[in-house]
Structures are given as structure tokens and as C-alpha cells.
Amino acid sequence: MTSPVEISSDALEYIAAVPEPFRELFDRLHALVLETLPDARVVLSYKMPAYVTDGGRVSLSVGKAGVSIATTVAAPVAAFHARHPELKAGKVTVLFPPDRELPADDVRALVLAAVGR
């Protein structure tokens, strides 16, 4: 049995304050990351929740156009963007607008690759 994920109080505050219309999308991405990285600690880093493991981290943030997932390495984002060119991506971020289908399996692959798994 896995122990509950450790989430810092400031990360919980950020998560609780996510506004509509991004709440549902954020919650789905948050759940996917936790499901994919059950050993992660969730802390607030650079003013956003960071899901930290021994191998690396990913972060979620809410902006004007949707919810972004950020990594510390570029290769997983480039691979994800090659499969989903319709989504905006930067060097280490992917933006998910609230009106698009979430490619859950590819998000899981992105998260795993970002932490070296």
C-alpha cells in the first residue's frame, strides 16, 4: 500500500484557489500527475505546485489561456509536442486550454519522461 502524497500547505492553498474555468482541467492534470508519480512530494516552487521525486519534477500552473505543465528538461516536451502540435508548447512547457480533450496517456508519458522514468 502506498502512503498518502505529502502536499505542503502553501501548495494546497494554490490548488484550492484555482478559478473557473480552469478548475476541472487543473484537477484532472493534478490527479494524473499524482497517479503517475505516487511517490512525489507536492511543494510550492516558483509560485506553482511542483511534484518532486528523486528523479526530477514537474509543475502545474494556471494562466490566462489554460493550465500549463512545466518540466526541467526539454526532450519530453518536444516529444509530446510532436504528437500534439495543436497544443502550444515552449521549451519546457505545454499549455492545455480548458476546451480541448486531455490526452491522458501522453500526459502520463510526458510526466514519466520528465522525471527520468
From TrEMBL:
The family database entries (InterPro entries) matched by this protein are listed as: YdhG-like
Q: Where is the YdhG-like domain?
A: 23-115
Entry-linked Pfam families: DUF1801 (PF08818)
The protein here is known as YdhG-like domain-containing protein
Source species? Actinotalea fermentans
